[in-house]
Amino acid sequence: MLLSLREICYMNAVDTNILIYVNDSRYPSKQAIAASLVAGLTDGVLIWQVACEYLAASRKLEPLG
User: Fold this and answer.
1) What is the pTM of this model?
2) Measured between alpha carbons, how far is 37 from 17 in angstroms, rounded to an integer?
């Protein structure tokens, strides 16, 4: 059975790097782009692996504030 385009499900997932750049003020241009991408999401999911990667990587940003 073939599905029509209306019946196909999809999801929006955010990559770890996007989440890191949202919180990394060392690169203002990347931060602005990442913030815009995240703000533009109307529906999305946070994949467990991405959450774990974000927690590990964000610890490196702690000394920066």
Assistant:
1) 0.74
2) 12
**Token pair listed for 62:** 């702690």
Quick check: helix, strand or coil at residue 45?
A: strand
Q: In Å, what is the CA distance from 44 to each residue of 9, 27, 28, 37, 41?
A: 12, 25, 24, 12, 7
Q: How far apart are CA 7 and CA 44, in angstroms?
A: 18
Say which residue, 37 or 62, is predicted with more confidence. 37
Nearby residues of 57 by Cβ (< 8 Å), 6 or more positions away: 16, 20
- Mean of pLDDT values over 26-54: 91
Query: What pLDDT shows up at residue 63?
Result: 75
Task: Reduce the DSSP state of residue 18 to 3 states and report it.
Answer: helix
